[in-house]
Amino acid sequence: MDVLTDVLAATRTGQAGSARYACRVPWAVEFCDARRAGFHILLDGTATAWVPGDEQPPLRLRPGDILLAPSGRAHAVGDSPGRPPTVPNKDELSGATEPADAVMLCGWFDHAPGGPHPLLAKLPPLLLVSADRGRPDGLAPAVDLLAAEVRSARPGSDAVIGRLVEVLLVLAIRAWTDGRSNSATCPSLLTGLRDPVVANALQVLHDEPARAWTVEGLARRLSLSRATLARRFSAQLGEGPLAYLTRWRMTLAAQLLRETDTPVDAVARQVGYASPFAFSRAFSRIHNEAPTQFRRRVRR
User: Fold this and answer.
1) pLDDT, tens only, 136-176
2) Residue 1 contacts by C-beta under 8 Å, 6 or more apart in sequence?
3) Does the pTM of the predicted model rise above 0.85?
4) Which of 100, 123, 145, 296 is deepest in the core (most CB within 10 A)?
5) Which architecture characterizes domain 3-177 according to CATH?
């Protein structure tokens, strides 16, 4: 599994969903569920998106634009910046009957307890993928398919919508990332995936997270010098390979604790810790609570 797919799979939980909003002026929809990552696609009309109390300026949307909200930060979309919410945020078809001044298609999936992976958390609250810019192959057809499924409510639509939301989120992140490899607004992990040395190192760590890696051993696997690997990895991600590996192991451990009944000591072994005590200390540093407490809290 590739790194971006790994990240999204390990940090999402629950069923993905989608809703279509048909709104008339004045209108505004507020999205304030911190557990969700998602996107909004303006199908018709114009709209503005903003983050209340944030320094990021409002973003003007035109038909075909895609707005990403990757970290679950509270935000709103409406006909005018700052307008109070007028449309309920429901997981179903909402808003006024057509003809409408704006039609918006939204998709989301729930983050795992503990928040999004740093890849998503470090992104700006709102990302605009303009319809005027080049799009990856498949993005436009995926939008059309999702819009059709949401409107049809045919048997199996929930399964299809879930897959399409995942596809659209990845394609939209790709589209936003293109051309931003040197931008300060692009998170280090995304820029790192463009560096072949760092991308290969990340893939190896994701493929074998439980292995007793050293920087020297990872460099040998990649036919690199230790100095070259350490320099390139730190330059792109802001931390060394082993620091990243620890965080990724704890992400995987959280997934196992959340979704399985595997005993804590077995979880520790699956993510590369022979000692449950060492695992518990590492987990507590990342998640601010012991593994048993984490499992109890998220499975209530």
Assistant:
1) 567 778 888 888 888 777 788 778 887 888 788 778 877 77
2) 9, 206
3) no
4) 123
5) Sandwich (2.60)
